[in-house]
Amino acid sequence: MKKSFLLFFCPASLCAQYVPDDPALHQTIARHDSIFFDAYNHCDAKLAVYSDYYAEDLEFYHDKGGLMQSKKEVVEATKKNICGKVTRHLKPGSIEVYPIKDWGAIEIGMHQFHNKAEPGAVPHDSKFIIFWRNDGEKWKITKVVSLH
């Protein structure tokens, strides 16, 4: 009876725990996510670090803002609209990383954004997808899907 009760309230598709196929890759991408978003959160001082993570052929899909296909445009928009105003906070344990053979990885996760101009606003979880390309020396972000 207990087992069927749990299955009713917790179907496997909703309660399955993510286990990375490649724990070392998961750790690598999580580390780069941390470095990249630390630079995002402190972009007044770390804009070069932030910018360096983006590939020249960047595609940035934002559900509210549309598609941007210019690294320069994304960095300038960040400088204008984010630096000193907005911070990103990763939802702990939400990162999933999937290897892409002979290319890199895809990261999927949840995060929240806090806007200093709206101190009373309640942040909500947002989904993101980042395509990471590894050229053998560096990890670069080639595509971002940002869903709010």
Structure characterization notes:
This protein has 148 residues and is of the alpha+beta class. It contains five helices and seven strands, in the order ααααββαβββββ. The chain has helices at residues 2-9, 12-15, 23-41, 43-52, 71-81, and strands at residues 54-62, 66-68, 86-90, 96-100, 104-115, 126-134, 139-147. Strands 1, 2, 3, 4, 5, 6 and 7 form a seven-stranded mixed beta sheet that branches. The longest helix is centred in the first third of the chain and has 19 residues, at 23-41. The N and C termini lie far apart (40 Å). Pfam families: DUF4440. It comes from Flavobacterium caeni. Residues 29-141 form the DUF4440 domain. This is DUF4440 domain-containing protein.
* Count of strand segments: 7
Terminal CA distance: 40 Å
The major β-sheet equals: 7 strands, mixed
CATH class: Alpha Beta
CATH topology name, in short, is: Nuclear Transport Factor 2, Chain: A
Summarize it.
The chain is an alpha+beta fold and 148 residues long.
Write the layout of secondary structure elements.
Layout: H1 2-9, H2 12-15, H3 23-41, H4 43-52, E1 54-62, E2 66-68, H5 71-81, E3 86-90, E4 96-100, E5 104-115, E6 126-134, E7 139-147
Helix pairs in contact: 3-4, 4-5
Summary keywords:
7-stranded mixed β-sheet; DUF4440 domain-containing protein; alpha+beta; Nuclear Transport Factor 2, Chain: A; 148 residues
